[in-house]
Write a structure and sequence with these properties.
Elements lengths: L1 E5 L7 E5 L9 E10 L2 H7 L10 E2 L3 E9 L11 E4 L2 E2 L13 E2 L11 E5 L3 E3 L6 H5 L2 H14 L7 E4 L5 H12 L3 E6 L2 H9 L4 E4 L5 H9 L2 E6 L5 H8 E9 L12 H6 L3 E4 L5 H14 L5 E6 L3 H9 L6 E5 L1
Parallel strand pairs: 11-12, 11-14, 12-13, 14-15, 15-16, 17-18
Antiparallel strand pairs: 1-2, 1-4, 3-5, 3-9, 3-18, 5-6, 6-10, 7-8
C-alpha cells in the first residue's frame, strides 16, 4: 500500500512510499481509508516543532473509510460499514484529563495518510449518513477539540454570546458551527476580511478584524460583552478578551501560537469572576457525543478542497501559507 511518511531528509520531511499492509490482531480492525484530512499538527511535525518526533511514521490523524477485515474478538458485522476514526490513543480512565501516555494517531502510532490502517475496535464510529467520506474525514481531531472547548469548558448553550477567534482554522470553524447549533449568538475574529464575510454568510452575528485598531471596543459595543471566548493563540490578546467578558465569563484556549502573555489582568479577572481554561482534544465519550450532536443537527464540516493523494505535499504547503478556509481533504 502507499502511505505518506515522515522521513529524515534534508530537502523535505514528507515522502509517499510503498509499504507492507498490516493485518488486524485481536481487538483490531482493518480500514480501507477513503479520505483523510490535514491538521496544523501535521505541518508542525513536518517542521520538527512537535515533541517526540519519530521518523518513518505515517502521518495523519483524521480519516474515514470502510472496514475490510476484523481481528479475533471483533464482531464481524463491522465488515463493510462506513466509519470515521477516533484519533485518541490511551486517553485513560479520568475523563477530565488525558493520561501520561496519551497520544494521537499519526505520531508515534501510524496514521491515516495511507490506503489502509489498522486501529482498535473502540476507535470506530459509524459515519453519519448525511456526510460524504470527505466531509467525515474532516471531522475527528478539529471537531473533538472544538466540542470539548465549547461544551465541556465553555458551557455554551442557548442565549449565550460567544466569540470565536481566528476564524479560518479547522477547530475555530467547528467551534463556530457547534455554538451556532446550540443556539448561541456567535461573533468571530480574523485578520482577513474574506474570512469574516464567509463567517457572516454562515450565520455569524458579526465579525472583527483583529488587525484593525480599536476592534476590541467595537466588539464590546456591538456584542454587549461575551459569556465565552474560544481562542487558539494565547499571548497578550488574552488581556483584550478579559476586558470583553461578561461577569463569570469563560476564556477557553486550545493553542498558544502567540506564546505567553507579557502580563495578565488578574485584578479584572478576580473581580468579574472570569475563568481562563486550557483545553485539548476531548475524551472518548466526548467523541461519541460529538458524532451524535453532529448527526442530530446535520452539521457539515467546511471543506476547503479535496485533492488526490499525489498532491498531499502541496496541500501541506497551502495550509502552512494560510491559503485555506476549511479543511484540506485528501482522497485516497
Amino acid at each position: 500500500m502507499k502511505a505518506l511518511f515522515l522521513v529524515d531528509h534534508h530537502e523535505d520531511k514528507l515522502q509517499i512510499k510503498e509499504t507492507a499492509q498490516l493485518s488486524p490482531l485481536e481487538g483490531q480492525v482493518l480500514v480501507r481509508i477513503k479520505a483523510a484530512a490535514l491538521n496544523r499538527r501535521d505541518q508542525w511535525i513536518r517542521q520538527g516543532m512537535y515533541p517526540g518526533i519519530q521518523f518513518e511514521t505515517i502521518l495523519g490523524s483524521d480519516g474515514a473509510g470502510v472496514v475490510e477485515a476484523v481481528g479475533a474478538g471483533v464482531e464481524g458485522s463491522w465488515i463493510g460499514k462506513e466509519v470515521i476514526l477516533n484519533p485518541n490513543m490511551n486517553w485513560g480512565e479520568n475523563p477530565a484529563v488525558q493520561a501520561a501516555d496519551y497520544h494521537i494517531l499519526g505520531m508515534p502510532t501510524h496514521g491515516t495518510f495511507a490506503e489502509y490502517l489498522v486501529v482498535n475496535e473502540r476507535q470506530l464510529f459509524e459515519k453519519p449518513a448525511h456526510l460524504s467520506f470527505e466531509q467525515a474525514a474532516a471531522l475527528p481531531l478539529g471537531g473533538l477539540t472544538a466540542y470539548r472547548s465549547v461544551f465541556h469548558h465553555g458551557k455554551v448553550g442557548e442565549g449565550k454570546t460567544v466569540l470565536i477567534s481566528g476564524m479560518g482554522g479547522g477547530v475555530a470553524q467547528f467551534a463556530f458551527q457547534f455554538a451556532m447549533a446550540a443556539g448561541a449568538r456567535v461573533y468571530v475574529t480574523s485578520g482577513q476580511v474574506s474570512k469574516l464575510e464567509k463567517a457572516k454568510e454562515m450565520g455569524a452575528a458579526g465579525g472583527f478584524n483583529y488587525k484593525s485598531e480599536g476592534w476590541q471596543k467595537e466588539a464590546i459595543k456591538v456584542s454587549g460583552g461575551f459569556d465565552c471566548v474560544i481562542d487558539s493563540a494565547g499571548g497578550d490578546q488574552l488581556n483584550d478578551f478579559i476586558k470583553m467578558m461578561r461577569p463569570a465569563g469563560r476564556i477557553v484556549f486550545y493553542g498558544a501560537t502567540n506564546g505567553m502573555p507579557s502580563k495578565l489582568d488578574v485584578f479584572r479577572m478576580f473581580w468579574n469572576q472570569i475563568t481562563i481554561q486550557g483545553s485539548t482534544m476531548g475524551n472518548d465519550q466526548e467523541f461519541a457525543d460529538m458524532v451524535a450532536f453532529l448527526a442530530e443537527h446535520k452539521i457539515e464540516p467546511k471543506v476547503d478542497s479535496v485533492r488526490p493523494f499525489d498532491q498531499i505535499v502541496s496541500a501541506f504547503d497551502d495550509m502552512r501559507d494560510g491559503k485555506v478556509f476549511g479543511k484540506l481533504v485528501i482522497r485516497i
